[in-house]
Design brief:
12 strands, single chain, five-stranded mixed sheet, 305 residues, rod-shaped
């Protein structure tokens, strides 16, 4: 399109009103400027668009064809402007979030509750998956933000800390009592017990494997579980010794339903936080990040300054 958009705007206004003076008043420009713009457009298209008469102007057959297209184009532009105005007035937008089932249940839901109450018109899509998959989708820009443990790599990503978590081994008192009766009081719990870990698709499993290898802890009887929720439930029913996140079973430990098994070398704490690409042109995402920085949804969550 070689013509200036303003020429089409003038053509559209003249064709719609059928009168140059009306179009001039509508567009706040002079009648000679209107006539000059129409003449330039007709010259550039090598087509007569209007016939003039005493009552104003009338579209030629070619002008009617062009008017049909410009009407559709300007209506789309008007719809776009109204949509932007609606988004601005209602603070609308769309955020795509990646998070594991466990982190969604124990952490993300609290954030979402407060955010939705404050920004009810922002659309939120949740991709429930492993943290490994979340980081992969961030790299592919298929989601806007993820909640994961702090990744070892990802220099192009911003990490906003939310809380620290402590991995720990737990079992029911009855499981430990029966294990010691069967194997002896001095038996190595990790070599004789049923050790339950997340499967190898999970970042937590990689972290725990590194810890166990570094501390020469060997599990002879290993049960792999797909989710932390299942791992916790299996530990609660006495299926074995589960490596779980302490913050998620704190009440069980405090009330004696689960017992912590602490190796000589403690497992180092990990940091959970939001991961996202900097500079993404999304007002909704900026709003969500600002909310997460300012609002701790639960007093039990340790915030970083």
């Amino acid at each position: 399109m070689d013509q200036n958009l303003s020429q089409y705007r003038i053509f559209y206004s003249v064709a719609r009103t059928g009168n140059i003076s009306k179009a001039a008043r509508e567009l706040y420009i002079s009648q000679p400027a209107i006539s000059k713009a129409i003449s330039k457009l007709e010259d550039s298209l090598n087509t007569t668009l209007f016939t003039r008469n005493s009552r104003g102007v009338q579209l030629t057959e070619e002008g009617q064809i062009l008017f049909a297209h410009t009407s559709a184009a300007f209506e789309e532009l008007n719809l776009g402007e109204r949509e932007l105005k609606r988004i601005r007035e209602f603070n609308m937008g769309h955020i795509r979030i990646g998070v594991s089932n466990t982190l969604c249940r124990f952490i993300m839901v609290s954030y979402l509750k407060g955010f939705i109450e404050k920004y009810p018109h922002i659309k939120i899509t949740i991709e429930s998956q492993s943290s490994t998959h979340t980081l992969a989708m961030l790299g592919q820009q298929r989601i806007d933000i993820g909640l994961t443990a702090k990744p070892k790599t990802g220099k192009s990503l911003v990490f906003l800390p939310v809380m620290e978590i402590q991995d720990t081994f737990v079992a029911t008192p009855s499981y430990l009592e029966n294990l010691r009766l069967r194997e002896g009081a001095d038996a190595d719990l990790f070599q004789t017990g049923n050790i339950m870990l997340l499967d190898k698709q999970n970042l937590t499993r990689t972290y725990i494997d590194d810890y166990m290898n570094a501390n020469h802890i060997q599990a002879n009887n290993l049960l792999q579980v797909t989710t932390m929720d299942l791992l916790i439930e299996f530990a609660r029913i006495g299926l074995g010794i589960g490596c779980v996140i302490r913050e998620f079973v704190r009440d069980d430990i405090d009330k004696g339903r689960l017992v912590e098994i602490r190796p000589e070398s403690p497992i180092r704490k990990r940091t959970i936080g939001f991961v996202y690409h900097p500079g993404r042109p999304s007002k909704a995402l900026d709003t969500f990040i600002r909310f997460c920085r300012e609002c701790a949804p639960d007093p039990s969550i340790t915030r970083f300054k």
